[in-house]
Design brief:
Elements: H1 3-6, E1 26-28, H2 46-60, E2 64-67, E3 90-91, E4 94-97, E5 103-105, E6 110-118, E7 125-134, E8 137-144, E9 159-160, E10 165-168, E11 181-187, E12 200-201, H3 206-212, H4 217-220
């Protein structure tokens, strides 16, 4: 599937958070291991990560810091779920770092596929997966690190239209040890997953996940340049 072609008419950014926040206040952020500013900062610690993000937003007069697709990070080193024979540290979605309680809005029409609270340390916390149909093709979108309230009233098949509020962002204790943010990921084949899907992979898994999880910026229209 050529997803570049499917979204080629996307000329302007699509809101993924509170649409009262202007796109001019979305600013790119680099949380990769190649960012030398992070050499002395342990971003796996929520308070240190938040302090760094706050500094970026202050310096740029921004409200939302975004980025991270296929970014290799140290962010996950304190969570055992990412360690093992192969360390998983390559991020498969785009993160939007901003205040807890910020509204998450649906970027395209869809319906609820599944949802659950993935509450183990380093996971997503409250998570929603939507199913979309675009030009005869099925696409899934995942929203992680939400508030517990976001899961209330949901049911499989519940419909949402583009621009409708889906959820709100959770605080650090709820999103299982991260500074508040939205993890947004596109998935082509969800397999047997329900309410969850890997958001970080190892180097040896990268080729598979690059194909199955296209760049969310194809849909959202954001640029890191």
């Amino acid at each position: 599937m050529n997803w570049n072609h499917l979204f080629e008419n996307q000329k302007t950014p699509v809101a993924i958070l509170d649409d009262a926040i202007p796109f001019s206040e979305y600013v790119p952020i680099d949380l990769s291991i190649s960012n030398r500013q992070l050499t002395t900062i342990d971003i796996s610690r929520p308070l240190e990560c938040q302090k760094y993000i706050d500094g970026i937003l202050k310096d740029t007069n921004g409200q939302i810091a975004f980025g991270g697709y296929l970014e290799k990070r140290d962010l996950y080193k304190s969570a055992k779920r990412f360690s093992g024979d192969e360390v998983r540290n390559i991020h498969l979605g785009v993160d939007f770092w901003c205040q807890a309680g910020t509204a998450v809005v649906v970027p395209l029409d869809g319906k609820v596929h599944s949802f659950q609270n993935n509450a183990d340390l380093g996971n997503y916390g409250p998570t929603i997966i939507l199913e979309h149909f675009i030009n005869g093709h099925t696409l899934y979108s995942l929203y992680g690190h939400l508030s517990l309230e976001s899961l209330k009233g949901l049911y499989k098949g519940k419909g949402f239209v583009k621009g409708e509020v889906l959820a709100t962002l959770g605080e650090t204790p709820i999103n299982v040890n991260y500074a508040p943010h939205l993890h947004f990921q596109l998935i082509l084949d969800l397999g047997d997953f329900n309410g969850d899907y890997p958001g970080v992979c190892s180097k040896n898994e990268l080729e598979f996940y690059k194909k199955n999880c296209p760049d969310p910026n194809l849909l959202l229209g954001f640029s890191l340049e």
